[in-house]
């Protein structure tokens, strides 16, 4: 097969499926057949035109797939134990940023702050097409092998889960803390799972959608608040005996919930 189908964002609000040649790879790149790809809110913002991106572009950066071809100089890549040999047929996911590896930020391990960072699937000065396509080419160094017991579907959640884990690390939850989580969408529910491992005394979730509140309760939230029917600030103060939550994690991204987060701490 020489061609593939790919979904191009041609302009805000318009995505067109095109039949195009399968990408050719360079000596340090790998060709991956995409198995699963999620839709991130960043994709939605680019689709709506509220996030800058050069068009036309293939979006999609939360994905998993199978290696179909490797470049001449590619011999290994990363997994949880370090560098391992790479081979066709390996199941993989990827870090969706391409950093230089040489600037001061990269040398400090802050690849997301790279002076010449490129994003996979849209944003940036240099456009790197994403995974809303049958195939994607990527530098081998940003790929990670999936464990054998991890499905392609779960593999597509690795990037967003890593973002959530970074947030948990920054929050510095201590054993016995009361934790308030604002929002129980995909990111919020992933955060909830990670919060439970930190040993909080109680987890409070504020969420306006009934189905999400039910999921949050089923997944371990001690209290769930409907902010559409009750004042969430007063309710959190009531639950915490007037103290407010020790740690507040905002997983909605709106000015209103950000202000509430400050008031409920």
Explain what this protein looks like in three dimensions.
With 265 residues, the protein is an alpha+beta fold. The protein folds into 2 domains: 3-156, Quinone Oxidoreductase, Chain A, domain 1; 172-263, 3-Layer(aba) Sandwich (Rossmann fold), CATH 3.40.50.720. 25% of the residues lie in helices and 30% in strands. It contains 8 helices and 16 strands. Strands 11-3-5-8-12 form a 5-stranded antiparallel beta sheet. A 4-stranded parallel beta sheet has the order 15-14-13-16, sandwiched between helices. Strands 2-1-4 form a 3-stranded antiparallel beta sheet, with no helix packed on it.
Task: Show the helix and strand layout.
Elements: E1 3-11, E2 14-21, E3 29-38, H1 41-48, E4 57-58, E5 62-70, E6 76-79, E7 82-85, E8 91-94, E9 97-98, H2 104-107, E10 118-119, E11 135-139, E12 143-145, H3 152-155, H4 158-171, E13 178-182, H5 186-196, E14 202-206, H6 210-218, E15 223-225, H7 232-239, E16 247-250, H8 255-263
Parallel strand pairs: 13-14, 13-16, 14-15
Antiparallel strand pairs: 1-2, 1-4, 3-5, 3-11, 5-8, 6-7, 8-12, 9-10
């Amino acid at each position: 097969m020489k061609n593939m189908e790919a979904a191009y964002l041609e302009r805000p609000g318009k995505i067109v499926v095109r039949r195009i040649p399968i990408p050719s790879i360079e000596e340090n790149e790998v060709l991956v057949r995409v198995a699963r790809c999620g839709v991130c809110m960043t994709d939605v913002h680019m689709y709506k035109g509220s996030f800058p991106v050069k068009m036309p572009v293939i979006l999609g950066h939360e994905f998993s797939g199978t290696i179909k071809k490797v470049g001449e100089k590619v011999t290994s890549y990363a997994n949880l134990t370090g560098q391992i040999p790479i081979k066709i047929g390996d199941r993989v996911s990827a870090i969706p940023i391409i950093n230089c590896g040489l600037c001061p930020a990269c040398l400090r391990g802050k690849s997301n702050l790279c002076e010449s960072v490129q994003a996979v699937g849209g944003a940036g000065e240099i456009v790197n097409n994403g995974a809303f396509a049958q195939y994607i080419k990527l530098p081998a160094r940003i790929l990670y092998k999936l464990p054998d017991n991890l499905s392609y579907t779960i593999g597509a959640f690795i990037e967003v889960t890593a973002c959530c884990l970074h947030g948990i690390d920054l929050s510095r939850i201590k054993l016995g803390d009361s934790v308030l989580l604002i929002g129980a969408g995909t990111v919020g529910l992933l955060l909830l799972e990670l919060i439970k491992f930190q040993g909080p005394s109680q987890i409070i979730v504020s969420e306006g959608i009934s189905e999400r509140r039910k999921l949050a309760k089923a997944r371990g939230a001690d209290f769930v608040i409907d902010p559409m029917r009750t004042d969430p600030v007063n309710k959190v103060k009531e639950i915490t005996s007037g103290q407010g939550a020790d740690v507040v994690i905002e997983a909605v991204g709106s000015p209103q919930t950000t202000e509430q987060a400050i008031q409920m701490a």
